[in-house]
What does this fold into?
Amino acid sequence: MKVRFRGNLIIRGELKCETALHIGGSVEGYEIGGMDNPVIKDAITGYPYIPGSSLKGRLRSLLEWAKDKVEADGKIHSCDDPDCPVCRIFGVPAEEGREIGPTRLIVRDVWPTEGTKRMLDELQRTKGLPKVEWKWENSINRITSEATPRPIERVPRDSVFNFEMVFSLYDFENSDGNVPKPDLEFLGDLIESLQLLEDTYLGGLGSRGSGKVKFYIKQFVLKTLSDYESQSEGKSLLDTEGQKVELRSLNVKELIDEINKRFEARQ
Ligand SMILES: [Zn+2]
It folds into this structure.
């Protein structure tokens, strides 16, 4: 297999929680009778965050459903089709030795904005909650109607996080001389997975109201190999640099044309 690096597409912006969010953390360190449904928090600062692995895993699973790639045993999908959008974007386990090249999508851990940190600090100061909200859920006994309340930690609604994803673009040719579709042609599938996430949920308790999120893209930057060689910042592909662009306002076809033009100009 021949693989050649072409460049990175760097996508940055805000992820806003339109409802509260629950991404489960470790119960380690909690006393018996205390909170047994915590959200994941940074060990040093105590602020909740969204692990890149949680976000990436959810996007992958949504795209597996959308592309009819869910395995019968429910395990993570991987296949030999070089043009499979799931395997191309999200990668395959290295030990399977499939000819698809490196994982294209990198999803960073997602951290609260300064404004959201202040809001969480305030929650702690005024209500004594550990930089989160507590939601009480009741499980109702079907016969006696007795309610058993239990607290669940959530990141409050309207919290905003800064996200960054990198979609790496390679040219590759399989050892049988087969040239699969260019990576760029899968950009639409990546955006589709983000839209599927917006219309479903992130994290736990999604069918009970938690985890509705929305993406606002602020930067969509192409850095080609020659940009790296010349220490250039790359080319912004959004006219509205710094403004917030919703996913539905992205014109994927125009973006692909623009990126191809940049590649051709640099060859
Ligand atoms: Zn596949």
In short: The pocket of zinc ion is lined by residues 69, 77-79, 81, 84, 86-87 (CB under 6 Å). The CA atoms of residues 64 and 73 lie 13 Å apart.
